[in-house]
Amino acid sequence: MTQVSYQLYCSRNFPPLTDTCKMLAETGYREVEGYGGLLDDLDGLKAALDQNGLRMTSCHVGLDMIESNPQMLLDLAGSVGLEKVFVPYLAAEDRPVDSEGWRAYATRVVAAGKPLRDASLGFGWHNHDFEFIKTGQGDRPEDLLAEAGLALELDLGWVARAGLDPVDMIKNYGDKIIAAHIKDLAPAGENADEDGWADVGHGVQNWGAIHAALQDVGCTHYVVEHDNPKDHARFAARSLATVQSF
Questions:
Q1: Are 86 and 59 in contact (CB under 8 A)?
Q2: How many whole angstroms separate alpha carbon 101 and alpha carbon 196?
Q3: Mind listing the pLDDT tens digit for each residue in 59-104?
Q4: CATH code 3.10.20.30 for 3-173
Q5: Phi, psi of 152, rounded to the nearest 5 degrees
Q6: DSSP alpha helices (H): ranges in 61-165?
Q7: DSSP letters along 163-196, please?
Q8: In the chain, what are the domain boundaries?
């Protein structure tokens, strides 16, 4: 059975969190994915989830926080239902410049996740598009991260933005994909006020083929996301309806 979740980052511009969680529950969601900024108020986060019958089954957490306080994340597994943790981003100024640098960075990320993996939590990397730009040695950083032993939360919107076919990438990474960001792109030139993203099923992604490919590799954790919706309730409702139609 496929888990369907909502990345709370989509609603960062629509506070408060309690209202967002109420909207999501009323729309039909039962799971959400958190992000690092929400971890500054764990009591408020837990209250908003509990009041609306939601579980935070995955979370984006910066590498520094994982390295400095893995116990906080282990505690979240018991309090909010956390099952998977993903490192979500690497700032441009911190990105390695060659394959050797990426391999070293991947080793660091793998080591940071050991306490989480030891506690049977899923742990891995969430991509944007820069991970698909080949190094001077001809390697894709995403490949090097996966080869180091990291699981992947494959963001299919950013895969497409990188000029790659999401279905091909799903087949390429196979069972390394333990979650997927279900994200759609607007037709070229449209939705400029939403950074060119679209509600799931209202853009250009071939969801029939993508869903089939994800199921073939055993990925059953879908997280809907839109980086900048004008109306998060509209996005949440239309995207859930699309995913439920798969």
A1: yes
A2: 32
A3: 999 999 999 999 999 999 989 999 999 999 999 999 999 999 999 9
A4: no
A5: -125, 140
A6: 63-68, 70-80, 99-112, 114-118, 141-147, 156-161
A7: T--HHHHHHHHGGGEEEEEE-EEPPTT--GGGTT
A8: 3-173
